[in-house]
What we know:
Blueprint: E1 10-16, E2 21-29, E3 35-42, H1 47-67, E4 73-80, H2 89-101, E5 106-110, H3 116-122, H4 143-162, E6 171-175, H5 179-191, E7 194-198, H6 202-211, E8 216-217, H7 221-224, E9 231-234, H8 243-248, E10 253-254, H9 266-273, E11 277-278, H10 281-284, H11 287-299, H12 312-319, H13 322-336, H14 340-356
Keywords: NAD, Nucleotide-binding, Oxidoreductase
InterPro entries: Aminoacid_DH-like_N_sf, Glu/Leu/Phe/Val/Trp_DH, Glu/Leu/Phe/Val/Trp_DH_C, Glu/Leu/Phe/Val/Trp_DH_dimer, Glu/Leu/Phe/Val_DH_AS, Glu/Phe/Leu/Val/Trp_DH_bac/arc, NAD(P)-bd_dom_sf
Protein name: Valine dehydrogenase (NAD+)
Amino acid sequence: xxxxxxxxxxxxxxxDPASGLRAVIAIYSTALGPALGGTRFYPYPSEEAAVADxxxxxxxxxxxxxxxxxxxGGGKAVVIGDPQTAKTEPLLxxxxxxxxxxxxxxxxxxxxxxTNADLDVVARETRFAHGRSExxxxxxxxxxxxxxxxxxxxRAAAQHxxxxxxxxxxxxxxxxxxxxxxxxxxxxxxxxxxxxxTDVDAGAVxxxxxxxxxxxxxxxxxxxxxxxxxxxAPCALGGALDDETVAVLDAExxxxxxxxxxxxxxxxxxxxxRGMLYAPDYLVNAGGVIQVEDERHGSSxxxxxxxxxxxxxxxxxxxxxxxxxxxxxxxAADEQGISPAAAADRLAEERMASxxxxxxxxxxxxxx
Length: 368
């Protein structure tokens, strides 16, 4: 693995044998500001797999934060281990010490395997832990706004494909109905869509069906991708769109909350050839980072307009702009004859280059 050739600014390996901490913090870019990205706690099969995930996720975070219009760079941390058995207070606090040692270059938050309560523990050792519980003045669970943003992106894709920003009467297949997928189903049912779901966790499906008896469920993702639908929404782990899945997928629009949905870059062109409209994942699922950024914005006197506390309404108003940004990306893809994934990358890179250039104009230090 060519870590030095990956384009990352910094990759930090964290080890504390006494607590069992083994972690990797990857900072892809600080061109727009400190690198924000969650902490993923996962039983990786090898250190190489953990590093690869950290590198891919941190780059995606840089692009996500750029397209969302945030003054934030991109980073990600991964902790190697089973969160059900390895997560302890000493481990989380040791991790917090490593985050603090970076002096604000990296801002951490929740991700797969970590919770708001975990970030409260991490924050006992660092000033740079966000997405904390409401008890401690944090923004709480960010899955609500993540789902809201995906819904806005889906509406924009519907506008682009069918000329109307509505999912009413459309069939939407949702793969993964945990937090984000579950909230997304709520939005879709409220909109009047016909929803089909699946999840490896039978309990998650049962909870959705209890709230919405009219929702249909299928046994597994292999069945779901073959089920005729207007929209396919991958909302579980990454790599959901691989060669085999795209070959059998029966949907016009793909728009979901999972990160890094494309198993490899060539998938974007495959979707174009099959006539499927892909709303880039890091564009539409940015509601969570928008919420975390508002927590930071509202609690920091160092940031213009800060100091008033987190506002869900303000964060939701920002997340609503995902609709306009998605339309902009899809239209740019058509105009330039490229895939939506390539169009999103270009817009993100342009902002990182143009706004990031301003850092060369020296001003008195104000801190991050």
